[in-house]
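Lab notebook, bench 4. Still working through the backlog of constructs that have no structural model yet. Next entry is a single chain of 224 residues. Request: give me the structure tokens for it.
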Amino acid sequence: MTATIPTKTSPEIIYPDSDGQPMSDNTKQFELIVTIQGGIDALYKDNENVFVAGDLLWYPVEGNNKTRQAPDTMVVFGRPKGYRGSYQQWLEDNIAPQVVFEIISPGNRMGALFKLFHFYEDYGVEEYYVYDPEDNELMGWLRTDEELNYIESIEGWVSPRLQIRFQTASGDLEIYRPDGQKFLSYVELSRQQESVQRQMELTQQKADRLSDKLREMGINPEDI
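Model written out:
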């Protein structure tokens, strides 16, 4: 009788959905992250093959759950929208995020930022943007010749991939869509909508007053 030798099976590798780190360290950083992620997502709302995420863990290497980063915002062209607990690149046609944003917080250290830069350079990011709200400083890198190269003149820069424009002259980071519309926070969007609604109401009131005046004159507004 031949004894059966049990074969060893490799343990299943778990890719956690969280790294235990907070999304942001302060309200300003959080607002910027949400505004950038939401603005880009809205820009591509009709394109089902552009995936935009905020603070989502990205695992670039199958079988390695230690090599990972969670960009404040990342944009992936060529992947469908939809739910993900994490971005596991080998399950996404091996497409790396092309554009990444990081918002610096007081807790960030230069060593950590240096590590982030090399991660994004090593794993194929095409455009990498870093903004420091404290100093109103925007930095950017663009991939050429397999490297991320520093963008010397960033004021008014237009992203090659996204076609959005960056401005900091006002004292804050401002981002403009290709049609010239500015990325707005939820509060700014709400105020804009309220302003439009008020304008519509005023226009309707004027039209109603004109109609009443015409009727007083014996004219039916519907006949005009």
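Notes after review: The longest helix spans residues 186-216. The helical segments are 27-43, 110-122, 186-216. Flag for follow-up if needed.
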